[in-house]
Specification:
Elements: H1 2-79, H2 88-91, E1 105-112, E2 117-118, H3 134-157, H4 165-179, H5 194-198, H6 225-229, E3 241-242, E4 250-251, H7 257-261, H8 269-280, H9 293-297, E5 310-311, E6 316-325, E7 328-339, E8 342-350
Length: 351
C-alpha cells in the first residue's frame, strides 16, 4: 500500500507540476497580450496626442498668417492711394515666410475682391433711395442696376461661356428675383420665384436676399456647376464674382481681362489684353493711381464713351492662409474690409 501510495503521490506531484506549468504559461501569455495591447494603446495615444498638438500649432500658424496679411494691407494703404498687382499685398504669395517658424511653412495669398463683379449690385435697395433727394438717388440707383446687369449680360455672352440670349436672360432675371427683397413674389419675365423652386424634386424657397457666398449661386435657376466652376476646357464664372459690396464699382487695375472685356459693349478681347499688358509693365505702376490710364491705352474710351463705375482703390480682400507641418496642413480663408487705412475682419472659415 505504501508503494502504491508513493506512486500515487508521485503521480499527483507530476500532475500538480504540469498544472502549475500550464497556469504559469497561461498567466505569461495573458501578461504578454496585455503588454502588447498596452503598448498599442500607448502608441495610439501618443499619435493622437501628437496629431492634436500639430492641429493646434497649424491653426495658430494659419491664424498668425491672417494677422500678418492684414498688417500688410494696412501698411500698403499708408503707402499708396491706389491698388494694383505691383503692391506688396499682391506680391505676398511670392514671399518666403519660412523664417517665421522653427518648424513648418506658411503660405499667404491676398485676392482683391474689388477687382471682381459684385453679384449683388444687379439689385439696388429701393428703401435706401428714399432720401431728401429721393428722385435723383432713385435714378442713379436704376442706372447702377442697369450698368451692372449689362456687364453681367456681356460676360455671360462672351468667351469662354458663350451663352445664348435666352440662357443669359434667364440667369440675370432669376438672380434679380433671388436677390430682390422688396418685390416679394413678383417674377421677372425669365426669372423664378418660390413657386418655381418649390416645384423641384428637392424643393426650397427663393431667398429674396443678397447672395452671401458664391456656392449659393448653384441654387439659382439657370446656373450650373459647369458654368460656375468651369470644366476641363474652360474656367468658370466663380473667380470673376464676389459677394462683397453692391456699388457695382470695379478696380480696373486688378480686374481679370474677361471682366475688363465686359465693361463696355465696344470693348474687344484685344483691347482688354492691351490693358493687361499695360498694367503688367512696372514702368507704368505710377500711372495706376488714376483711371485716366485707360484712355491712354484706349483713346476711343473718352467723353461720353468712357467706362463707367471703374475705380483704382480697393477696400475688400480675401486672405488665404495655408500652414503646413510635415504631411498635415491647415487652411483659413478670411474676408477683410479696409477703410481709412484700417483693415477689419468680416468673416473667416477654417478648412
Amino acid at each position: 500500500m505504501i508503494r502504491n501510495g508513493i506512486v500515487i503521490s508521485q503521480r499527483l506531484l507530476k500532475n500538480n507540476r504540469g498544472m502549475a506549468l500550464l497556469i504559469a504559461l497561461t498567466v505569461i501569455s495573458l501578461i504578454v497580450a496585455l503588454t502588447i495591447q498596452f503598448n498599442k494603446n500607448m502608441r495610439q495615444s501618443l499619435q493622437t496626442s501628437g496629431t492634436q498638438s500639430n492641429r493646434i500649432r497649424l491653426e495658430a500658424m494659419a491664424r498668425s498668417g491672417i494677422n500678418l496679411a492684414m498688417a500688410v494691407l494696412n501698411k500698403d494703404a499708408q503707402d499708396n492711394e491706389y491698388d494694383s498687382f505691383h503692391d506688396s499685398w499682391a506680391l505676398l504669395a511670392d514671399e518666403d515666410l519660412s523664417q517665421l517658424f522653427d518648424e513648418g511653412a506658411l503660405t499667404l495669398k491676398i485676392t482683391d475682391n474689388s477687382g471682381k463683379f459684385q453679384i449683388n449690385s444687379i439689385v439696388q435697395s429701393k428703401t435706401q433711395q428714399q432720401t431728401t433727394n429721393g428722385q435723383q438717388n432713385a435714378q442713379q440707383a436704376n442706372e447702377q442696376e442697369q450698368d451692372a446687369r449689362n456687364i453681367l449680360w456681356r460676360l455671360l455672352r462672351q468667351e469662354p461661356f458663350h451663352l445664348e440670349d435666352n440662357a443669359a436672360r434667364t440667369i440675370i432675371d432669376s438672380l434679380i428675383d433671388w436677390i430682390d427683397v422688396e418685390d416679394g413674389d413678383w417674377e421677372q419675365e425669365f426669372g423664378a420665384e418660390t413657386s418655381y423652386y418649390q416645384s423641384l424634386d428637392t424643393p426650397y424657397p427663393c431667398k429674396n436676399g443678397p447672395v452671401e457666398f458664391i456656392e449659393e449661386l448653384l441654387l439659382v435657376k439657370g446656373i450650373t456647376p459647369e458654368l460656375l466652376f468651369g470644366t476641363e476646357k474652360h474656367s468658370g464664372l466663380a473667380p470673376l464674382l464676389t459677394t462683397q459690396g453692391n456699388s457695382g464699382q470695379i478696380n480696373v487695375n486688378t480686374a481679370d481681362p474677361l471682366l475688363l472685356q465686359a465693361l463696355h459693349e465696344d470693348m474687344t478681347k484685344e483691347m482688354a489684353e492691351d490693358m493687361q499688358t499695360y498694367r503688367d509693365d512696372e514702368n507704368n505702376t505710377d500711372k495706376m493711381a488714376s483711371t485716366t490710364w485707360v484712355s491712354e491705352v484706349l483713346p476711343s474710351f473718352t467723353g461720353k464713351n468712357t467706362l463707367k463705375n471703374i475705380i483704382v482703390k480697393s477696400n475688400s480682400f480675401t486672405i488665404s492662409s495655408h500652414a503646413q507641418l510635415n504631411s498635415t496642413g491647415k487652411d483659413i480663408v478670411a474676408i477683410v474690409q479696409r477703410d481709412n487705412q484700417k483693415t477689419s475682419l468680416q468673416s473667416w472659415k477654417i478648412e
